[in-house]
Amino acid sequence: ALTIGIVGLPNVGKSTLFNALTRNQVLAANYPFATIEPNVGVVPLPDPRLDRLAEIFGSQRILPATVSFVDIAGIVRGASEGEGLGNQFLANIREAQAIAQVIRVFDDPDVVHVEGKVDPRSDMETIHTELILADLQTLEKALPRVEKEVKIKKRDAAELAAMQAAQAVLERGETIFAAGSKLDLESLRELNLLTAKPFIYVFNADDSVLGSKEKQEELRALVAPADCIFLDAKLEADLVELSEEEAREMLEMNGQDESGLDQLARVGFHTLGLQTYLTAGPKEARAWTINQGDTAPQAAGVIHSDFQRGFIKAEVVSFDDLSGAGSMAEAKARGKVRIEGKEYVMADGDVVEFRHGI
Ligand code: GDP
Predict the structure, then answer these.
(1) Binding site, annotated residues
(2) Which residue is closest in CA terms to ligand 1's atom 8?
(3) Domain ranges of the chain
(4) Cα 11 to ligand 1 centre (Å)
(5) Model's pTM, two decimal places?
(6) What is the ipTM of this complex?
(7) Class of domain 293-356
């Protein structure tokens, strides 16, 4: 399954956020190594289109797409050398497809900062440095072998050049993800470098930041072109204890129109390069997860592998057209329902019925 690994220095609010994500009440201790066991939290991707489909089709239940998060044990300076929880940290993070880095920007004299002061830039660099050092180790191990393979013509010299270019980027203190477009990522894939994974930054903020567009823009510039979100992990933990209506009121009181968890799910989903298509009937209205660029048979395969093999055609209507028409019959009458074949590339929000020969 696709997962996003949550990382960050100790005491930045990872456990608090993760508890909110899983609605678990694990004790978030004010203690550097509180988070030891990696856990997975599955979060529904908010999608108001499903409510509308359920209304149109009289569906009994709604099944949104989900995003999975893994809570990865605290990283500290020196983690790449196996200090603290280093080795376990690196093994867990290697399995995640993207990295969400939690950065503390809240002020609270009662919460110890592991580096002595709240400094988002320095915290970010500490984490980057550990990941970069781990990647450099991976490269140093791989390069002699790759060089040998090039010499005996078992491998293309371009691949070696790509790895050396990556090494130079890392030695400059840059992540592969940030340098992305300048590198031949395809040749680096086999190394599964940590800093090649897409990054999202989660600023765990207080009112002074949540209420200031200016401060947010400053922080956004710090991580650009990566995506970032701003939330208050403590508020998020409180929100999950409330009813939907109460939660909405509390968000409004805090001047926000979407919860941090919803934002995180949305941005995470996007960062993973995913999109959804929709199916609906009297039983359920459901969102299915596919990769951007997937074809209709690939999309059918997410429901059942037989549907991919036996794919004949897909009946497709865009959500907006269907919602505007108000019923499938009306959408057809308006000529909005298309028959698509094997080559069709799915669009986000396609409402689909597959025809298959099984
Ligand atoms: P972790 O070590 O990164 O997992 O951090 P925790 O989630 O355990 O949080 C460390 C401490 O900071 C706990 O006492 C939390 O209650 C507190 N904390 C977490 N998020 C916030 C926040 O947004 N604001 C404030 N004031 N405290 C927070």
Answers:
(1) 11-16
(2) 28
(3) 293-356
(4) 6
(5) 0.85
(6) 0.95
(7) alpha beta
